[in-house]
Each structure stands twice: as C-alpha cells, then as structure tokens.
User: Fold these one by one.
Assistant:
Number 1:
Amino acid sequence: MNLSAETEEKVMFDDIASMLRTFEEKRENLMPILQEIQEKYRYLAPPALEMVAKRLGLSSCDVYGVATFYNQFRFNPPGKHQIKVCLGTACHVRGGDIILENFERKLEIQAGQTTPDREFSIDRVACVGCCALAPVAIVDDTVYGHMAPSKVEGVILGFEIEKERKEREKQDSESQE
Ligand code: FES
C-alpha cells in the first residue's frame, strides 16, 4: 500500500470513530451505521467492521454476518476504474459470465475485489436496463454493449495506455519546472 492510501485509511478510520460516537449502543443501529460507512467510503474495511462491533457491543462475527448477508456492501476499496459486468437474464444468456471470467483472468482478481494497485475493481451487477445491448459491461460511466471476450483485453489496455500517457505528461511538466 502506498503512503497516500495509508493516510487515506487513517483519515477514514478517524472519521468513522467520530461518526460511531453519534450512535447509541443499540443493535438496531447496525444497518444504518453500515449503510452510512458504505455510502461515504463505498466499502466496509474489516477494521471498520471491528470498530462497529465494539461500539455496539456485538461480536465481530455478528457484524460480519449481517454485512455479508446483504450484497449492497462491498469489502474492498473500489478501484479507480470500476468494472461492472451485468449478469441479468439477457446478459447471462448471451455469455455475461464469460465476459466476467475474462475480466477476472485479465486482472487476476475475482468479482468483488480490487487490484493491488487499486486501479481496477470488478463487480457483478443485475440488469442495468440496456438488455438490447447484451452482454453489457460498464466501466466508470461508459457502457460497453455487445461485449465479447476478445474485447476485454482492449478495454483494459485503453485505460493502461491512458494512465501511461498521464504519467508521461506529469513527468514532462515536472522536468520543465
Ligand atoms: S440483463 Fe444486462 S442489461 Fe438487462
């Protein structure tokens, strides 16, 4: 983890600690707390779940059990580029699961996970409302319709090239200073 990710986590945990102080020690506060953390930080870090358990006087198992029961929660920080692969019925019958597998293989992570450099995360999603384009993947705000396994490599490559370009620009502008 780089230093800025560590600093970001520290800020997040400090913020969660003060947020937790505003909730009474009642079990019925568990879902509102988890939702608030997820909404603000877009994931529930394991230490945050421990903090919630301690605040509410529950066991960590209880809190993990509730959090993992609902698929609205994620447990890894979302990547800079969020890949969502639709596995709704129309996409599933047109090979959405194969598209998902290809993204997973290419990035060497599973759905619900984030690459170690936090560049990409993959999630499976239900119907996103454009079944005519099935199978569909969404990366950030771009919808990729009629996806094919052979297009996966190109989608990732596009982001990697863009990242390299930005890094080169940054280095150029730093060397001119
Ligand atoms: S099932 Fe994938 S867009 Fe509807």
Number 2:
Amino acid sequence: MFMNYIGSILRNYCMRCNKFYDAEYIFNSKEIPKCECGGIIKPDVVLYEEGLDENIIRNSIKAIESADLMIVAGTSLTVYPASGLLNYFKGSNLVLINKSITPYDNRASLVINDSLGKVFAQI
Ligand SMILES: [Zn+2]
C-alpha cells in the first residue's frame, strides 16, 4: 500500500553525514531510506495518513511554511490532515500528483493526473 506522502523532497539528507539524496531515491526505498554510511535519510517533511502525532504535525507545519517547493502525491486532499496542512504552504511551487483532480489544482504550479508509481518511474 502506498501511503499518502507530503513532502518538500528537495532536501532529503542523511542525519549522520548530511549527504543529500534526491526524490527518486526516497521513493524507491521500500523501508526507511538509508544512506550509504548507514545513517537514516530524513526528508524535510514526510507525512503518513496513519499514526500522526502532534509533534509530527507541528514539525511538518514548520517545514511546510519554510518550503519553497512542495510536492503532494497520492492524495485527493479532501481528508485531514493533508488538506489542512497545504494551507500553510507559502512557497512558489506546488506540485500535485494524483490520479484524480483535487480541490487544490488551481493553486498548483504543476498538476499531474496519473498514478504516483508511473510518474516517479519516469523521472
Ligand atoms: Zn550518511
């Protein structure tokens, strides 16, 4: 099951050695993405629809507020918290990847109506 993912995925970095990784690497990881040094790669914002605690939401809001690019994939943005969090985004580039249209399509710089797997396979 591919879970909803909200992320500013330009800035994935290793928590140990600070090496940067691109989005493709993160999406191709089946488990927690790991660096070649063994450290955990931490995306700027990763949200799963299940198991969100208050801390994660607070940190996500902070990250979203300071992000310039936000990619929202695999969610129709009609359910909390995905829909609510999007309102905190003040950056210039919003990218939406979803099979169907979303209420936020008119705010996005780029809308891709396709499945997440297909889109990222082509990057
Ligand atoms: Zn590392």
